[in-house]
Amino acid sequence: VDAFAEGLLRRAGIWDIGRKVLEGRRISEEEALRLFRCPDIHAVGWLGEQACRRKRGLIATYVINRYLNYSNVCILSCRFCAFYRREGEAGAFTFSIQELVRQARESYERGAGEIHCVGGLHPKLPFEYYLELVSEIKRACPGIHVKAFTAVEIRHLARRIARLPLRETLLRLKEAGLDALTGGGAEIFDPEIRDSICRGKESAEEWLEVHRIWHELGQPSTATMLYGHIEGFHHRVDHLKRVRELQDQTGGFTAFVPLPYQPDGTDRLPVRRRTSGLDQLRTIAVCRVYLDNFEHITAYWLSMGLGLAQVALGFGADDLHGTLEEERIYHMAGANTPQGVTVAQLERAIREAGRIPARRDTFYRIQAHSEAFGSSVRTG
Ligand code: SF4
Predict the structure, then answer these.
(1) How many CB atoms lie within 10 A of CB 157?
(2) What residue's CA is closest to ligand 1, atom 7?
(3) Taking residues 132-159, what's their average pLDDT?
(4) How far apart are CA 202 and CA 116, in angstroms?
């Protein structure tokens, strides 16, 4: 470590944590909490970047993907959610499989390698709908990866729709072609906060159980954390601890995606403003440092904005998620970011941040990258 970096960390009071990180040692929950509380964003960010570079070097990834929301009809009413509607209510939608496959095919022909598909907890759609949705997309788009359903949807399907054990439900979806589970629905694991923002939703243990079983079936998933609402830093650390513990046991998570709360489309939580840019950067950095068993940290440009996500590449993130094309959930909550970006925009953002852009697949395997800044993309 050069004298400047050591001085930076010493002045910030986190030199002891810095040494651990630089030596590749794991930090504790108490140390993660100190990083969240450390007022020197540059010191925390520098540590995040060091931890990131050790894993990924200068490469930063994105995926060409498309979001499909099959339905926003939901039996729950999470207080932070602006997406859901009751059946028959104005604004409720449920797409036919044919229409969803048409949309997937359209994106596939434009180069999409991943379909990202989630929806509400629909009370009536039969299990066959979900199986067919996956298998038909795979049939119409050979080689595409389908990343779909949150752990909440999976439990809903198993318990109320298919009436099958979780493992059997997941196995049937895997056989239909499901490649990966999405990380949504984790919100914040603390039971009190969870009860306040999304009463009736599965517990932390139930969320983790779905991912554990899915990993045991040999399949990957991502993990998320919805933050910047009514939780405290210690709730974030508790959330990260539980995710890190499961990752120690299964190794099945590909990436961690911190999601800043979007307050504009719902007034049922006492939170009026979006969490600050500094809090978002700090959260990326702490996640990168604490989650030493996760290979990737995603700066979700859609919620952060592409500009801030680009800055996050210097604070510990090594992935910008994807092109998305037609996101609905965050936009119904009032996000003022675009509903999709082009490959050129993502690559420019990565290059400007001093990183080498690389296209990845659902499994975070690199598909194509430019060998030097500004060179043309090489496939392989
Ligand atoms: S967050 Fe998901 S489960 Fe909760 S109301 Fe919205 S769609 Fe339903």
Answers:
(1) 26
(2) 120
(3) 97
(4) 22
Q: What is the reported pTM?
A: 0.92
Q: Which atom of ligand 1 is nearest to the CA of 152?
A: 3
**Helix, strand, coil in percent for the chain, rounding step 5:** 45, 15, 40
Indicate if ligand 1 lies below 6 Å from the C-beta of 84: yes
Which pair of structure tokens corresponds to residue 82?
């602006």
Ligand 1 center from residue 88 Cα (angstroms): 16
76 lines ligand 1 (CB under 6 A): yes
Q: How confident is the model at residue 196 (pLDDT cuts 50, 70, 90)?
A: confident
Ligand 1 pocket, mutate which of 72, 73, 84 (most atoms under 8 A from CB): 84
Whether residue 338 is predicted with pLDDT greater than 70 in this model: the reply is no
Residues 6+ apart with CB under 8 A from 259: 224, 225, 226, 227, 300, 303
Q: Which secondary-structure segment (H or E) carries 360?
A: strand 356-360
Strand order across the 319-322 sheet: 319-322, 59-63, 356-360, 366-369, 378-379
84-143 pLDDT, tens digit each: 999 999 999 999 999 999 999 999 999 999 999 999 999 999 999 999 999 999 999 999
